[in-house]
UniProtKB/TrEMBL annotation:
Residues 10-70 form the HTH tetR-type domain. Pfam families: TetR_C_1 (PF02909), TetR_N (PF00440). This is HTH tetR-type domain-containing protein. Residues 33-52 bind DNA. Transmembrane segments: none annotated. GO terms for molecular function: DNA binding.
Length: 217
């Protein structure tokens, strides 16, 4: 029987994902590398690479680790409540790890955990509520894009820093060309980091989707 590598036992996909997310959260996206992860895990650079193959594989491990934390919504939950719970949970996971969002960019997230814990149950609930599969996918897509965009727009782990940077940029504008932004700093800055802006928009999308729900026979 071949001997199992002790290094591979240490560098499990779960351990790599946890270490990578911690590195991203503590030091930012520029600090993430196979060598930095290997140092944290106490294994070789090659061992980490065997698990991930490349950066895309590493990011997939991280996103799958997060997706596994999405909630299971009990059967029979009101459709609107289930939507808010599912996408609200995704939003909280994404805003907690802004460095991961920066590195993933526009890459699709098609891991089994996300498909099993978010996409499939969300579509199934919508179809059960009376939507066609196409309508269900459209509704899902709108909520997913809102969630992803809202999480990526600003670093919610540092709202004070995000507000200060925006304030400095807006204060430098020419008031004649940007009269609303220049004169309304006190009003336009708070919504940038207000989580309720996202939740309010999510509820509006949920409410707008209700006409697609038809009574089932």
């Amino acid at each position: 029987m071949p001997r199992r590598s002790t290094a591979l036992d240490q560098a499990t996909p779960e351990a790599i994902a946890v270490a990578a997310l911690r590195l991203l959260d503590e030091e930012g996206p520029a600090a993430l590398s196979f060598r930095a992860l290997a140092d944290r895990l106490g294994v070789s650079h090659a061992t980490v690479q065997r698990r991930c193959a490349d950066l895309a594989g590493l990011l997939d491990l991280c996103t799958e680790h997060l997706a596994a934390q999405l909630p299971d919504i009990p059967a029979g939950t009101d459709w609107a409540q289930a939507c808010e719970q599912r996408f609200g949970a995704l939003y909280r996971l994404l805003t907690a790890h802004p460095g991961l969002l920066v590195l993933r960019g526009g890459r699709p997230w098609l891991g089994r955990q996300l498909l099993a814990r978010l996409v499939e149950p969300a579509l199934a609930d919508s179809v059960a509520a009376g939507m066609t599969a196409a309508e269900a996918m459209t509704v899902y897509r709108r909520m997913y894009l809102l969630t992803l965009g809202s999480a990526a727009f600003v670093d919610h782990r540092d709202p004070a820093g995000a507000t200060a940077a925006s304030r400095a940029a807006l204060a430098a504008l020419d008031p004649e060309r940007f009269p609303v932004l220049s004169a309304g700093l006190a009003d336009v800055l708070p919504p940038l980091t207000d989580h309720e802006v996202y939740y309010g928009a999510l509820r509006q999308l949920i409410e707008a989707a209700r006409p697609a729900i038809r009574p089932t026979a």
